[in-house]
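F.,

This is the one I mentioned.
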């Protein structure tokens, strides 16, 4: 079966946040074992028209300004120590869309042990490559979306510019487009799921001190060691205080079976 999988949407209670880390790791493991990934126009339409909101569970609220940075597409949302939800703790989100009815982004520092080439065997451009799949967020885990870097304007369908030379895409042709050109100044990353907010929700979380806003940088998205991203960006004075062991879903995901060990899809 070539390691095929699909991150079937597994979000039974997106607004209460009552499930603990064990539930989410179990769900992620089950969906990786069970099905196939979905990318393309249908998925992107679902992303841009989503209604369920995923929010980070928060600790005691305290005011925090925007750190002088305007809230808009193309900024990083850096989790403060007030976020204790294991899906978002010590995360850095690139806000890809910020407009009425569509506020969403992808977590950029959650690599998994699963390779895109194993999960998407039908995309020939990925053959022989070791690019990891990233956990982009808990909404629509069956959706694989991409961030592209290209100094030239990317004119693919279902592709929008986020900032500078960075683009967001739900078009599977993006892999062949970027990889086939073999340019050192171009890059691509794939993400399972995304993070989304209802109208006014993100603004409220920032006002409570859940997120700091930092200007985005392509080097951090595509080149920087993901394990160092949060500590290097966080203005949080408590950034050195790590949560107890086992609270990091992206680390736990690395303990999941590799694609070579997965049973055939159900």
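My design for it:
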């Amino acid at each position: 079966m070539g390691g095929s999988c699909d991150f079937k949407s597994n979000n039974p209670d997106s607004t209460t946040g009552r499930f603990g880390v064990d539930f989410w790791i179990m769900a992620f493991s089950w969906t990786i074992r069970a099905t196939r990934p979905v990318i393309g126009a249908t998925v992107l339409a679902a992303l841009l028209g989503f209604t369920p909101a995923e929010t980070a569970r928060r600790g005691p609220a305290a005011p925090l300004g925007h750190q002088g940075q305007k809230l808009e597409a193309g900024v990083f949302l850096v989790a403060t120590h007030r976020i204790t939800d294991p899906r978002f703790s010590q995360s850095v989100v690139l806000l890809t869309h910020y407009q009425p009815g569509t506020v969403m982004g992808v977590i950029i520092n959650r690599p998994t042990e699963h390779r895109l080439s194993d999960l998407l065997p039908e995309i020939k451009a990925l053959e022989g490559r070791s690019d990891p799949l990233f956990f982009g967020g808990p909404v629509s885990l069956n959706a694989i979306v991409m961030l592209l870097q290209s100094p030239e304007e990317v004119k693919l369908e279902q592709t929008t510019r986020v900032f500078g030379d960075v683009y967001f895409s739900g078009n599977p042709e993006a892999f062949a487009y970027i990889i086939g050109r073999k340019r050192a100044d171009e890059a691509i990353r794939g993400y399972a799921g995304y993070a989304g907010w209802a109208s006014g929700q993100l603004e409220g979380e920032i006002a409570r001190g859940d997120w700091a806003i930092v200007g985005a940088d392509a080097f951090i998205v595509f080149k920087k060691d993901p394990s160092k991203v949060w500590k290097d960006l966080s203005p949080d004075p408590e950034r050195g205080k790590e949560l107890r062991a086992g609270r990091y879903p992206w680390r736990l995901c690395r303990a999941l079976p590799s694609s070579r060990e997965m049973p055939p899809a159900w």
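The first strand starts at residue 75 and ends at 79.

Talk soon.
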